[in-house]
């Protein structure tokens, strides 16, 4: 095997809405089926059809699945972008370019193949509209020949997608063959080759939103309300699909769930709070602009202590911002969302597996802690395709928290909604419909005492606020602990969270090659469990790597551990594209060099 | 069943006092307190089980009132204008609950107009009471969106903008129970309130409720005096609940009767004209004509039983979603295994 075998990146440039998704998925899956670790990233415009779109497939035998900036093979199909797409390719790369596309000069250290896609597709497909879709399959054939992808796996991947439509399958299959044959006759195999290996067997390919939806389904969600916004819509839509298929009552055929497409995000969260207050497992999914609208209600839920699960699939900016670009820039606004003294619990899924697990666990936490739980996903993790171990069926029961039934009340003989009975600062609640004279209480955002009575008392308010602060301490012991890889004698510590995690293994391997060993902490929740402090104390310099401009996680850490603030450095990435190891490395190297010269 | 032997005790053995809440903190004479009184009396007469009722409100003097009635019911005093969304969630979580929504004209016609409309569109079963005083009481007397053209504020400012008529809007949005009344007319309000509980779907009651502190002066169209002059009842309303077998003593041709989902009946005794509350066009016409003639038609404006309520629309199971055990909401292991197998091969 050569060093470039199973180590390459394919970059496909097409037009949005041109149906390239099936083609790209076929290539991705075929590689995956050959046992090679892969990831697929869709870089798409905020547009339904007509604007440029790119799909990048990274195959990597070491299992590095973060974005890779260098592309080894380009498929240029879009006349609008072909000039810059081609110009960006580096020496040693291979270019497959549609015949007649505008082109810059290409130096001989790049291999250029022009493919007459139009001429090749014409005899295969009579309908001109259909032709535009099927033509993509020709590059599937070309690329599989160039990279030595097993044609049987290509066919299997294609059948997996189109198996239910025999006519479409035949047509697409024919196009793949034509591309394959054309490459065989006119091209040379590339230096990077796909070779069968065994690093994917038993694994799945899935996007984070689908994983989250599955988590919610198996977590026993009973209520979802949402308002469409990219990149969160596919979570709600996939969940609704799953519920419709798997959550009709066997006996009656009726729904054991309710889904409402609300009129806006204020309503979406209002419905979640109403449902949750009345005892349902309720959630919503949104992105930045939607969160802004949820502000007052989330503060209300914090203060009135109502469970809620809120998925924030982070994207860039207010209004339209860059709705199809990824970011981790909602942290600070979510941590303190709403006015007054509010603090919220956040979970940071780093993998699709996490999305699934938190899809369930967020409900347990919300109901245990009686507070909103924000799951801080992002576009990269949510909408791109990732490998994973298959998801585990939950054998443990759910945790519905401290809810008193009529029988409980009869036994205990007393109930105060906001009294800390157990010393963990989490009170007991009842739900409406509980048939006991003690059950009812009045839920309000205004000042209340332990018995949920209205009060403006200068003693009662701070008492409630202090208990809520103690409840936040309890949260530290219940949220997922960070994953720590402490290397004895490590020169530096690295901290990452969410999708940034995927660039870290590669970063650390390459740092080690430089002679710099590092420890690593993957943050999984806010408030920070105690392991975080230990990690900070254990390293003189800690790099917090994140995808925002203002070092938002580093700020939260500095706030939490002011005496350790001096140790914290930042590596920041915020161009909207998923973070890559090269960028992290250059950040750390620059900073480390400065460190050495100033000492 | 005939009438209860002891008139001080209702069919579930409670007295009217049992339906009270805590003491009101509103201004003495506030219309909202009178509505509270009518709610207590109506709930008592209906024999409502308080544990089955959830009270919901927004923000305003009006939205405070759920604290003053049905003290044994759960209550959710939400944020300003957003009670309808909370009601929607509560209903879907537990469709066996009886929901009462209390709001103000600012809460429903200004900040919460969107949510109000969507609640009605979705036909969420809730008795939705708007305590309409034409001003923001709690923030000290600014005009609300229901203030009539020409109304003069205490400050002397005159409103020139068209008022929003929530009843007319509700009818347009497909509401199947729309009534208007006056806090000072408990004889009309009480039977309407009771009837609203028999409607399966959203019932909207717009109740003119004078704000004695900020909108009860001359020049206000929502003052006690103005209401006494311009209130134009469409009929005399009697409500006969399904559990009572009473015959009303009216001459033939004198009345119209509406039968509700649960078998309860509303008997409407004709006044000036024969008003048919099941005629949607007529309902809108009577509201519009009132604007021109400076009269406020009160009574049962519109009633129709046809539309599916939200829970029926979503085909919810009978049991509350909130009390389903884990095994009914977590699909079995095979479901996950099948999905996982599909994601391995790409066939799923
Ligand atoms: C988001 C928000 N904006 C403003 C307020 C201030 N506010 C409290 S009550 C109210 C108006 C209430 O008017 P209405 O619903 O008519 O009730 P009333 O007091 O007249 O019964 C306003 C504007 C608030 N509580 N929340
Ligand atoms: S301000 Fe007006 S609405 Fe508020 S309590 Fe006083 S009288 Fe009633
Ligand atoms: Mg008002």
Quickly describe the structure:
Chain A has 599 residues and is α/β, with parallel strands linked by helices. Helix content of chain A is 39%, strand content 19%. Chain A is globular, with a radius of gyration of 27 Å.
What would you say this structure looks like, in words?
- The complex is a heterodimer of chains A (599) and B (348).
- Chain A is α/β, with parallel strands linked by helices and 599 residues long.
- Chain A has 4 domains: 7-186, Pyruvate-ferredoxin oxidoreductase, PFOR, domain III (Pyruvate-ferredoxin Oxidoreductase, domain 3, 3-Layer(aba) Sandwich), CATH 3.40.920; 206-388, 3-Layer(aba) Sandwich (Rossmann fold), CATH 3.40.50.970; 406-478, no CATH class; 483-598, Rossmann fold.
- Chain A has 21 helices and 22 strands.
- In chain A, strands 8, 9, 10, 11, 12, 13, 14 and 20 form an 8-stranded mixed β-sheet that branches. A 6-stranded mixed β-sheet of chain A has the order 2-3-1-4-5-6.
- In chain A, helix 9 links the parallel strand 8 and strand 9 (258-261).
- In chain A, helix 6 (151-162) runs antiparallel to helix 7 (166-186).
- The mean pLDDT of chain A is 96.
- Chain B has one domain: Thiamin diphosphate (ThDP)-binding fold, Pyr/PP domains (Rossmann fold, 3-Layer(aba) Sandwich).
- Helices cover 31% and strands 20% of the residues of chain B.
- Chain B has helices at residues 31-46, 61-64, 83-93, 105-110, 113-122, 166-172, 186-197, 224-230, 280-293, 310-313, 326-329, 333-345; strands at residues 53-57, 74-77, 98-104, 126-132, 135-136, 142-143, 177-182, 202-208, 231-233, 235-240, 255-259, 265-270, 296-303.
- In chain B, helix 2 links the parallel strand 1 and strand 2.
- The termini of chain B are far apart.
- Bound molecules: thiamine diphosphate, iron/sulfur cluster and magnesium ion.
- Magnesium ion is lined by residues 60, 104-106, 133, 135-137, 144 of chain B.
């Amino acid at each position: 095997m050569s060093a470039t075998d199973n180590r390459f990146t394919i970059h496909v440039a097409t037009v949005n809405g041109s149906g390239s998704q099936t083609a790209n998925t076929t290539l991705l899956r075929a590689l995956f089926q050959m046992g090679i670790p892969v990831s697929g990233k869709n870089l798409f415009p905020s547009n339904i059809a007509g604007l440029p779109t790119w799909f990048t497939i990274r195959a990597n035998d070491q299992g590095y699945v973060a974005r890779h900036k260098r592309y080894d093979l380009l498929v240029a199909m879009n006349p609008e972008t072909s000039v810059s797409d081609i110009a960006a390719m580096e020496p040693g790369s291979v270019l497959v370019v549609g015949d007649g596309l505008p082109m810059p000069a290409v130096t001989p250290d790049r291999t250029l193949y022009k493919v007459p896609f139009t001429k090749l597709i014409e005899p295969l497909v009579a309908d001109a509209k259909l032709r535009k879709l099927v033509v993509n399959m020709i590059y599937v054939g070309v690329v599989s020949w160039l990279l030595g992808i097993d044609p049987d796996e290509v066919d299997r991947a294609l059948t997996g997608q189109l198996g239910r439509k025999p006519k479409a399958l035949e047509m697409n299959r024919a196009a793949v063959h034509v591309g394959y044959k054309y490459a065989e006759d006119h091209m040379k195999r590339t230096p990077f080759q796909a070779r069968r290996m065994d690093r994917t067997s038993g694994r799945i390919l899935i996007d984070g939103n689908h994983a989250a939806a599955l988590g919610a389904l198996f977590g026993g969600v009973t209520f979802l309300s949402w308002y469409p916004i990219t990149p969160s819509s596919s979570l709600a839509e996939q969940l609704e699909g799953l519920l419709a298929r798997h959550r009709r009552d066997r006996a009656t055929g009726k729904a054991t769930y309710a889904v409402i497409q609300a009129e806006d995000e204020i309503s979406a969260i209002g419905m979640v709070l109403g449902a949750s207050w009345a005892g349902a497992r309720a959630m919503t999914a949104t992105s930045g602009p939607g969160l802004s609208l949820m502000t007052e209600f989330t503060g209300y839920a914090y203060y009135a202590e109502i469970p809620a699960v809120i998925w924030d699939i982070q994207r860039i900016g207010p209004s339209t911002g860059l709705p199809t670009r990824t970011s981790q820039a909602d942290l600070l606004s979510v941590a303190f969302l709403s006015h007054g003294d509010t603090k919220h619990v956040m979970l940071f899924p780093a993998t699709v597996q996490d999305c699934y697990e938190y899809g369930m666990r967020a409900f347990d936490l919300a109901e245990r802690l009686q507070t909103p739980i924000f799951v801080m996903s992002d576009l990269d993790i949510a909408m791109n395709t990732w490998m994973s171990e298959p998801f585990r069926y939950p054998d443990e029961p759910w945790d519905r928290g401290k809810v008193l039934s009529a029988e409980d009340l009869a036994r205990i003989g007393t109930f105060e909604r906001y009294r800390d009975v157990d010393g963990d600062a989490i009170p007991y609640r009842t739900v409406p419909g509980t048939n006991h004279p003690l059950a009812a209480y009045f839920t309000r955002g205004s000042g209340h005492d332990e018995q949920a009575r209205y009060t403006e008392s200068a003693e009662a308010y701070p008492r409630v606020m202090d208990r809520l602060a103690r409840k936040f301490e309890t949260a530290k012991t219940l949220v997922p602990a960070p994953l720590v890889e402490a290397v004895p004698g490590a020169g530096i510590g690295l901290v990452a969270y969410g999708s940034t995690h995927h660039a870290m293994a590669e970063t650390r391997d390459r740092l080690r090659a430089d002679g710099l060993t590092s420890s690593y902490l993957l943050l999984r929740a806010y408030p920070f469990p105690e392991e975080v402090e230990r990690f900070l104390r254990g390293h003189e310099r800690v790099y917090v790597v994140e995808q925002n401009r203002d070092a938002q996680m580093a700020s939260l850490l500095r706030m939490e551990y002011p005496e350790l603030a001096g140790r914290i450095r930042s590596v920041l990435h915020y161009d909207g594209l998923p973070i890559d190891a090269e960028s992290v490395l250059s950040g750390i190297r620059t900073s480390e060099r400065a460190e050495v010269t100033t000492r | 069943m005939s009438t209860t032997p002891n008139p001080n005790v209702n069919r579930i053995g409670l007295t009217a006092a049992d339906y009270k809440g805590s003491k009101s903190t509103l201004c003495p004479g506030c219309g909202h307190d009178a509505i509270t009184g009518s709610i207590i009396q109506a709930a008592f007469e209906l024999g409502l089980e308080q544990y089955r009722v959830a009270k919901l409100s927004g923000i305003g003097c009006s939205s405070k009132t759920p604290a003053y009635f049905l003290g044994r019911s759960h209550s959710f005093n939400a944020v300003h204008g957003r009670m309808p969304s909370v009601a929607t969630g509560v209903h879907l979580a537990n469709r066996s609950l009886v929901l009462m929504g209390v709001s103000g004209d600012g809460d429903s016609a200004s900040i919460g107009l969107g949510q109000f409309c969507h609640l009605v569109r979705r036909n969420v079963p809730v008795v939705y009471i708007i305590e309409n005083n034409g001003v923001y009481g709690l923030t000290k007397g600014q005009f609300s969106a229901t203030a009539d053209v020409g109304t003069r504020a205490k400050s002397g400012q005159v409103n020139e903008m068209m008022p929003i008529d929530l009843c007319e809007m509700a009818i347009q949005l497909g509401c199947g129970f729309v009534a208007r009344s006056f806090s000072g007319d408990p004889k009309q309000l009480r039977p309407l309130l009771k009837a609203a509980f028999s409607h399966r779907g959203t019932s909207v009651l717009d109740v003119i409720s004078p704000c004695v502190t900020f909108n009860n002066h001359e020049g206000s169209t929502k003052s006690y005096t103005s209401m006494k002059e311009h209130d134009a009842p469409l009929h005399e309303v009697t409500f006969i609940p399904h559990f009572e077998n009473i015959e009303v003593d009216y001459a033939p041709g004198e009345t119209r009767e509406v039968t509700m989902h649960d078998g309860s009946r509303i008997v409407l005794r004709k006044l000036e004209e024969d008003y048919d509350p099941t005629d949607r066009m007529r309902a809108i016409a009577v509201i519009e004509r009132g604007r021109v003639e400076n009269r406020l038609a009160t009574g049962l404006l519109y009633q129709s039983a046809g539309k599916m309520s939200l829970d029926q629309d979503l085909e919810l199971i009978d049991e509350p979603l909130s009390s389903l055990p884990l095994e009914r909401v977590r699909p079995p292991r095979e479901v996950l295994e099948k999905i996982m197998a599909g994601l391995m091969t790409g066939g799923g």
